[in-house]
């Protein structure tokens, strides 16, 4: 159900999988060019805005999906979040005639209650698409604005959050040998699954501003996580996608350990590879898989 704020003229189909779609008046032969993606929190909702030059795209859609698939490649694209939206515009492009991007980073993180990540999933044959990662499944409404042309996606955030921390590599400290090599960054998470939420925010990576300040997420080829459990002070988590230290002394383990240990219920952390293996699977001791050794 939509909240009262999200009722009225919302362009929303709450049944089935489609959560927003529309056709707008624009010349079919004119391709709209995306020039900006913005997001911000407002009372009770996060707002995601796609801004275009010229007219609005003739059609757009916002659809709930179990996985983000790249247009053209047909391959899965990792996007952090417990709920995913596929956003598509036509005819539209995110590049100019020289092939240069027109809207900034193709993947970006947001430290908002509901919105976690937006990643490009296609810019092919006048179809421009994105995957949107959400902290939880929530009500969505979509609508358009003009002068300039914008497609707006509002996400209901009438759920409680608390502040947790994600620990990212600080490139400046690492380069100069000043420990600790990680820096804690505050993120909103949804209780009671606060450890899950903190890891979710970790895998989304730093925001563009945080990247510019020298922060980086070292994924060691992992694209996500699963099977997180905390029992008797031991947190166990399995990596998804891959696992490779590439010979580095700093790996994803150095970010996962402090991110999970911030919680009083966690004293030790055991990280498993994609096949479910770790160096010390039993006992009160930290453990990493062999693939995270230098």
Structure characterization notes:
- This protein has 294 residues and is mainly β.
- It folds into two domains: 4-156, Immunoglobulin-like (Sandwich); 162-292, no CATH class.
- It has helices spanning 171-176, 194-204, 208-212, 253-261, and strands at 18-23, 32-42, 45-53, 59-65, 83-90, 92-93, 107-109, 115-124, 127-134, 140-145, 149-156, 162-170, 182-189, 215-216, 224-231, 234-240, 268-272.
- A six-stranded antiparallel sheet has the order 1-4-5-9-8-7, with no helix packed on it. A five-stranded mixed sheet has the order 6-2-3-11-10, with no helix packed on it. It has a three-stranded antiparallel sheet with strand order 13-12-14.
- A hairpin with a 2-residue loop joins strand 8 and strand 9 (127-134).
- Helix 2 packs antiparallel against helix 4.
- The protein is globular.
- It starts with 17 loop residues before the first strand and ends in a 22-residue tail after the last strand.
- The model is unreliable at 1-17 (pLDDT under 50).
């Amino acid at each position: 159900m939509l909240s009262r704020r999200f009722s009225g003229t919302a362009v929303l189909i709450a049944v089935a999988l489609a959560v927003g779609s529309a056709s707008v008046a624009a010349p079919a032969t004119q391709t709209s060019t995306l020039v900006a993606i913005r997001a911000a929190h407002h009372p009770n909702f996060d707002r995601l805005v796609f801004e275009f030059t010229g007219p609005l795209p003739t059609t757009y859609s916002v659809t709930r999906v179990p996985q983000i698939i790249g247009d053209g490649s047909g391959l899965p694209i990792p996007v952090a979040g417990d709920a995913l939206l596929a956003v598509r515009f036509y005819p539209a492009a995110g590049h100019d005639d020289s092939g240069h991007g027109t809207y900034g980073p193709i993947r970006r993180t947001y430290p908002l209650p509901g919105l976690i990540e937006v990643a490009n999933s296609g810019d092919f044959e006048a179809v421009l698409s994105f995957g949107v990662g959400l902290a939880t499944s929530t009500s969505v409404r979509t609508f358009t604005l003009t002068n300039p042309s914008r497609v707006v996606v509002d996400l209901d955030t009438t759920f409680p959050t608390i502040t947790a921390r994600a620990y990212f590599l600080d490139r400046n400290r690492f380069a100069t040998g000043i420990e600790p090599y990680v820096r804690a960054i505050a993120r909103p998470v949804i209780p009671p699954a606060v450890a899950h939420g903190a890891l979710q925010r970790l895998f989304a990576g730093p925001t563009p501003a945080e990247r510019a300040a020298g922060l980086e997420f070292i994924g060691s080829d992992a694209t996500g996580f699963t099977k997180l459990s905390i029992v008797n002070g031991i947190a166990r988590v399995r990596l998804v996608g891959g696992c490779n230290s590439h010979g580095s002394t700093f790996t994803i383990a150095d970010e996962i350990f402090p991110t999970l240990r911030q919680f009083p219920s966690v004293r030790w952390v055991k990280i498993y590879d994609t096949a479910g293996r770790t160096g010390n699977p039993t006992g009160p001791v930290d453990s990493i898989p062999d693939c995270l050794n230098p």
